[in-house]
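Example (one chain per record):
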Amino acid sequence: MSKKIILLLASILSVGTFAATIEIGFENEQYDDKGTNNYNRSDVFMPYISGSFNPLDGTKLKIDFKYMYQDQYGKERAEGTNARFKTQRDRFEMFASGYSYKNGDFAFNPKVGFRYEQWSINDNSSSSQTKRNLSLRFFPDMNYKITSTTNLYLSGFTGPLFTETKQESRKDSGYKKGDLDTNYYYGDWYQEVQLIGVRQTLPNKDSIWASLYNEYKYLEHSAEYMRWQLRGGYNWGATDKLAINPFIRYDLHYEEKGKESSSLSGSNNGKTRDKDETRIGTTFSYKFDPTLTLVGEVYWQSAKNISFDGKKSDDKDRMFYKLGLRKAF
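Predicted structure:
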């Protein structure tokens, strides 16, 4: 963990703020090797610390924060000429909420904030590498109560993304192979929004939900991504202490369009490829007491792997595990 991040977290939890919750845990992604594809070189381990606090006593203002470190340990499997730089990343995010507008059965509960990420750079490699990016995010969360047990909702975020890259960078009109300069991009955009969702509360207090999800990402001189996905799940209160929430995500359409400069030889500009994914898993939580909770998630995901020229490789299968301990104050 970098010294700057440690100082920032210390200031967040300094005198004058009241920490509502603190959570410490890890996430782990493991990929099926699939023979010569070497997918398991993408395996990553990500410890994190997150929490929330109310900086102004007597107000509804709430600050959520999270720091995560990513270590791509899968690259340690590479040998000899196949050895590549191992990705190491620091991620910090912070969001503010508390304002609420209500009109009858309609409620608007926005949230604003940012995510900052910084990667270690291999100066000995000419491969394209991102050094850092800043994602500004606005969450226009809304809810409409149809009946006492049925709700419509919108949730997610949208906002600009600012990126600094090193090495060969993205392939704009000034691209030169072997150029190790720094480039900056200010025209990127990223959003993930459940545009329409419905949640039904059952007589036993469990709930079932489904939503239509959209993801859009635009990266200057790189690629444009558009995804439409169906999501659904069941929130099950197994006991007074144990909650299990199985879910599924199924892509209706997930496409990547190349955005490299058309002036370059071999440019992927205008070419498209499918990237459809399916994810099945569950989140869970167990309350040891009113202030201490074990939280976790596990899922399996399968993603298509197709080149812009239409060449198909084995699907990229991932297992994801998360485990954390949350303390309320």
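Caption: The CA atoms of residues 262 and 269 lie 6 Å apart.
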